Amino acid sequence: MNPTLFALTAFIAWTLLLLVLMEAIRSKLVLTREVAPTGFTPDNAGLSPFMQRLARAHANCLEGLPVFGGLMLVALVSGNTAVTDPLAYVFLAARGLQSLIHLASVSATAITLRFTFFAVQMVIGVVWAWGLLAAA
Predict the structure, then answer these.
(1) What is the CA radius of gyration of the chain?
(2) 3-135: CATH number
(3) Which of 25, 98, 101, 130 is 20 to 30 A off residue 57, Cα-Cα?
């Protein structure tokens, strides 16, 4: 499996893992009658700060998947993974670290680090888009 295909698959799997974690915790809350089955909002408002951060981390992945995943898919379909392969693992690491920091803390330092890892992803996305357009 080349780096682009691995990064795309891992990005999808990471997004799914965050969803499974959130739904497992929500299920526990329902089963223990801490929250009614109808007591959830998409942003987990009214739940613990961790659950709210988990919802946002998952939403961040969902927001980025069409853009970054789309670029990786274009590279794979067009046979231009030479554009995306060199930074695929860097992208994946930045995506994972952004999510993990989001889950861990809302301190000023954490927010700065989280944005830094998001900025890395944006730069990589621009590089990929530029390279894929140039190869077209």
Answers:
(1) 17
(2) 1.20.120.550
(3) 130
